[in-house]
Structures are given as structure tokens and as C-alpha cells.
């Protein structure tokens, strides 16, 4: 394992501070065309997956829009950090979001 | 400009042996840049011991050459797949299996800069000299985004250059920049790595470079409204795949027939112009037949790579994978594997080569292990012959023709077995590492670079001819020798009562007394439970060079008047020894066992060669041959018992 990878592997994705009364759901619950703000990534998810989702742009504090579902409801395309990416439900469930008004 | 114009004395020969690696995320235009720099001087290989393709080439600068290495696309240096591990290893000076590059070029897609800068923060941590190539700046402008390259350079502290694909002047500037890699500016302070800090750093870099996020690509939005629509999208998908399959299967066929005819003509020219004997037979059958047998795959491979690189370059491959993901995930694979499995219906060779488009090495291997089970076109003549032996063409089961129904059943069984096998191998792969999360970027639709399509086709054909061709040619020659040696004089044959004027009788005699016949007798105990006698064994052995050879070989063994249509003679063949002596050889249970055996067994040296090539070691083809043989034997036995019980 290279030094850089080892160092990057120790990262922990810090959640985005939100007021206590904010309703928090996951990316998998977003309806088509709605936008939300990422609060954090579930602590229960695999740490390597959390770090990868962060590297893909799912950073706490970022806005995300649900664009469309595949024919059998999975995977789902999201728009984040200025590009489009498809996630399976399994991964989308790991990302906590708050409704963005 | 670099020092070339100051005369040779002033130029330090920094370039000889200098290695520069391209790092970038998938879809960032990295490979297009690599192709533009290296062109036909690129070499494909494998990284030591892994199924990850390695692309390397040289590019000429004003005063020398540098080696350019195109690293696998990655979103992060925090690896979760074998391909990404390679990138981390190559950039690690402590890792000595692969040479560490002297400098890095990071390609950043200007339209996805917010995400792409994260990878740059990782790459800068390596401490190697880094320069940034901004790609798709033309698209950024078209979509009304903007960016000040000079300000970005100042904010990052490393050289930044916008390179629009196909613009020679941009490439010239990049070459000049590469010539001075030792003197590249380095950032005064390395960017942070903590997640909150990185987000803030990226925001500040974007702000200081006056970055305006591009608007949604209107073209892509409109196309996706149809192409990803649950109904229309699915229809377009199936239409595309149907057309795709048609092209691989039928458009390639005339070209293949032409190649076969040409080599058949050459072969008959040799036999008529050389004195009869084993030399002329060796030249025409083994050598020319072998070369023809290699070249015959080229039309399919070339067409497949034209289509795959077009679909990939346009951006449709990601959409197709998105639509098929749910179905393919049942087999533990992702959507993209569909294209590889579909191509395998024409031939496993292009199918296995198509797995190159899969981003994860684990999926690639699982797909490769399943692909040989798809019913390829070489199995067709074998199936037709064998089914014809036991089922009359007029037989109907209700409204359905029996022959067609059996054929259809074999296709379905092949496809199901391929999916099952891929599922098993992807499961086994998981025990060797963490589960890889699924994500797939949906890039905007873009015009593919014709140069990249051309180079992909060229590379595939070249690798096939140089690396796999040898294996196929070698096997053809060895099998020919086995089937034709030892050499028999005319006197021997006449003494044995063979009419030496009758070619069919002579070839039957030669094959019946060949080493292959010896081998057929030798392996009899292995195949006896399936009901195969030594003559079938010779056919099975000969079919290793290509499955359809089984038909012609059985014909020769049976000394049929027309070796290419041996059905008649075969149906009259009887078992010549042992407890079943005198009974018909091709009974329905034995034919069922043979059909199932051919469905599973990896009776194809070309596939073994391509597996060796694409997986980077002999381990995987050996494993595939072994497990498929075992499955073929067990399923063949099962088929014989079941059919024996019902008939």
C-alpha cells in the first residue's frame, strides 16, 4: 500500500452540520426532479464506500438532484457537482440528505 | 519553446528514458489525449500478474522522445479495485514491480471540474512533478460555463494547459511543456486531504479561477429523455443490440467466407502444384488452413471494435449498461457485461475482447469465465449434425419443429449457464476483497474521435494476430500432425487392403492409424461413461482447433464419401468393440451427451489463447478449461442418463 493511499484511506467523511429539527432522509427516497442537500454518509456503510462516494462528489453540504430511475426502479441517475452519475439503491441508501428549500 | 532551437550542444538529453504517466478519471479525455500523443506507436500489454491492460507509447518532442503511459481511469487514489490499485502502485516509488513515472499529466474535464479537482488533490500528494491538462474547454464554452486558465494555474501552483481534442496547436504546446517536465512549478503548499478541508479548498480554487458551472447539456437532456425512457429507451436498446448482433453475425460472414475461400483456393493450388504426399498436405491443410483459421476471425473482431468504440465514444454504452444493470446484477455483473455476452453469441473471441470495456477487473474475469458458454456460431454445425442424427427434420412436437426446439433449448441452456458461471466467479472474486460499490458516470453525448475508434480497431486486430494467432496456428499444426502421423507408405496401405486410388479410404486409413487414434483409444475410459467411443474421441480431440472441425473429422473417421456431410454414414455407424459391440453408436442418449458436452467444454484453442491474452496469465485459461471440462463431463453424463430414461 502506497503512503498516499494509506493516508487517504484514513479519511473520515465529516458530516455537514444541520439544525436539529431538519428532516433527514436518504438519497434513495428522493423523488424524480427533486433537489436535496447532502448531510452526511451513514456511519454503518463500509468506510471505503463512504470515501469513494465522497470522491465522486457526494460531499456533505453539496446539492444533489434526482434525475431518473432505470426501468426496474434501479439504478437511479443523480446530478451532482455538475455531472450525472448512476447509483444502485444500495449505495443511494447510504447517503443522508435534507430537503432543500 | 523547448531548447531544440538552441543547437544540440545546449540541449540536455533529459528525455531518453523519461516516463510520463497520464492520470485522470474515466471519460476525462485521457485516452484520446494518449492516442493523439502516441498514435500507432502505442503498445498494449498487461501489468505484472493482473488482468489490467497496460498502454504505453512514445511521443516525439523537439529534442528527443519520452515514454507515455496511459494509466487506468480512476476517480481517486484511495483504491477499491485492482485497476485503481495499479494506479496507486505505479505512482508509489516504493513499489518496484512497475517503474515510477518521472512526471504526471492529470487530465481534468473542464465541465466536471468540481469533482475532478478531488483527484488532483490526491495526485499532488505523491510529490511527483504534475501538470494539468484541461479537456473539453470547448464544451464548457458551448454550455455557457467559463473558466480563467491563468487564474486556475495561479491557484493550483502547477502548469495548466487547455487541450481541445484534435487541435494540433494545443498538442504542440503540450509537447513543449512535456519537454521541460523537470522544471514544472510545484505548489508552495500541498492541498489538504481531510474531507471538509478538501471541499473548502476546491470551492476556493474554483472561485479564484472565476469558474462558472456549465449549463445542462441540452442535447444530452433531450436524447436521454428518449434513450433512458422506460419504454422507448428499452425499445431503442433492444433495437441497437439487435443491429449490433446482426452486424457481428451476418455482416462479417461474407468477409469470412471470402477469407475461407481464398485459403481453400491457395490450399488446392498447393496440392495440385506440389507432388502428392504429406508435405503438400501439411502445407495446404496445416499451414494454410491454420493461417486461414486465424485470419477468419478478423472481420468479426474489427467490426466489434468499430461498434464498441463508437458506442463507448458517443456515450451510449453507459446508457445501455444503466438499462441492463438490474438484469445483469442478478448474475453479479453490471450492465456493460451484456455487450460482451451478446457478442459471444457470434464468437467468444470478440466477446472476451469486449470485456475490456468493463471498468472492474473482477467483473471482467467473471464475464470472461462465462462468455465461452454462450452458443457461438462454431457450435452450430456440430449441433445441426448431431441433432440431425437422432431427430428427423419432419418431427414435430405439437406445432413446434423438434429440431428447432432442441436448438433453442441449447441456446437457452448456454445463456443460463454463462450467467450462472459469471455469478459463481463474481461471488468467488468477492471473497478476495471488499465489495465494490456500483456507480457509473453518465457522460454527456459526445462525438467520438474517429482516430480513437481507428486505433482501438487497429490495436485489437494487431494483438489478435500477433499474440493469439501464434497459439491458434501452433495448435492447428500439432493437431494436424497428430491426425496424420505416423506416415504410411502406399505399400503399407495396399498390404492392409486399402484402395489407394480412393482418397476417402486413404484418409480414413491414415486417421484410423494416427497418433490421434491412439490418443482416442487411450482416453476411452474417461469418456466411456458418456458413451463416446474412440472415434468420437478423435473428433472431440480434433475439435480443439475449432469446434466445427468435429464435423469434418467425424466424416473422415467414418470414411464418408462426402466428409463435409457425414450424417448418412454416421447414422449407420455401430460400436466396434466392447459390451455394446454391434449396436448403433449414435443413440439418442449418446447424442444428448455429446451435445451437452459441446455446450460446456472449452473445445476451442482460440478462446484459450484470447483468455491468456486478456487475463494476463495462463492461470485463468487453465482454470476455465478445467472447470468447463468437468462440468461438460458431469452434465454430459446427466444428459445421457436422463435421455436414456425417457427414450
Structural overview:
The complex is a heterodimer of chains A (101) and B (647). Chain A is an alpha+beta fold. Chain A has three helices and six strands; from the N terminus they run αββαβββαβ. In chain A, 20% of the residues lie in helices and 32% in strands. In chain A, strands 1-6-2-3-4-5 form a six-stranded antiparallel sheet. The model of chain A has no long low-confidence stretch (mean pLDDT 87). Chain B contains 28 helices and ten strands. A seven-stranded mixed sheet of chain B has the order 2-3-4-1-5-6-7, sandwiched between helices. Chains A and B meet through helix 1, helix 2, strand 4 and strand 5 of A and helix 3, helix 7, helix 12 and strand 10 of B.
How many individual helices of chain A?
3
Total number of helices of chain B: 28
| First-last Cα distance of chain A | 44 Å
Residue fraction in strands of chain B: 5-15%
**pLDDT averaged over residues of chain B:** 83
What is the secondary structure topology, with strand pairs?
The complex is a heterodimer of chains A (101) and B (647).
Chain A: H1 3-9, E1 24-26, E2 35-41, H2 47-55, E3 63-69, E4 76-80, E5 83-87, H3 89-92, E6 95-99
Antiparallel strand pairs in A: 1-6, 2-3, 2-6, 3-4, 4-5
Chain B: E1 19-24, H1 30-38, E2 42-46, E3 53-61, E4 64-70, H2 82-90, E5 103-109, H3 113-124, E6 130-135, H4 137-142, H5 149-156, E7 160-162, H6 168-179, H7 195-208, H8 218-227, H9 232-273, H10 278-295, H11 298-314, H12 316-329, H13 337-343, H14 348-354, H15 361-370, H16 379-390, E8 396-397, E9 400-401, H17 402-430, E10 439-441, H18 450-484, H19 490-495, H20 503-512, H21 515-522, H22 524-527, H23 534-542, H24 549-557, H25 567-571, H26 588-600, H27 605-615, H28 619-646
Parallel strand pairs in B: 1-4, 1-5, 5-6, 6-7
Antiparallel strand pairs in B: 2-3, 3-4, 8-9
Helix pairs in contact in B: 3-7, 8-9, 9-10, 9-11, 10-18, 11-14, 11-18, 13-14, 14-27, 15-17, 16-26, 17-26, 18-27, 21-23, 23-24, 26-28, 27-28
